[in-house]
Design goal:
By secondary structure, this protein is mainly alpha-helical. It has eight helices and no strands.
Amino acid sequence: MMQWLKPKIILLVDLVLTFVVFVAVVLIPNVILEFTGTLFPELLLDAIFTFLALTACSLYLLKRYPADLVRPSQTKSNLKYGVIGGLLVVLLSFPMINREAVFQDNNILYVGLFYFIAILFGPFLEEVFYRGCLYRVIKQELGFLFAILSSSVLFVSTHDIVSGDHFSRILFISFVLTFVYEYSGNIISPVISHIIGNAVWCGGCLFKRWWYTLNSQ
């Protein structure tokens, strides 16, 4: 009985520590904004510290539960699964395209940094954490169903949810990314899917904003 229970208790402790670290780092922007006011864009600070939290938590879980997440020799397979998953993500995220979601700032450096994080850096870190670490280690001890549900709910919780429809769409996007990871056996494939989805979503939001501005003049 104890041999069966011990690894699950250890996993629970590791997940609680991961959650505490994640929340602590994500709350740092509130402290910065308290002392600096509007010196830095809140949305950009949130993005930066969310991904710092993802990095710290991923490094911790990878040290505790090592795994070979990248298999560069499977280039064609990575690309195939990545593109298929990306198209599904685009279909799910397309109705969420919103001109109000566009990040705007007078500082072009801030704008460039935000979209670099959103389109390239963010998808990589999120996939390493949610699929390569969280989903993988939970699945090892508690099974596929609990792993995909728990990691996907946490994935949704770090995104802006404006309606029940948004919640369900982001949840299904997480399911798609998890299945891409499962079928490919490689973290590169869901990263590709995620990048495609984020790029199309950001581009769609920017286009909608530009079109609205053009027609309101």
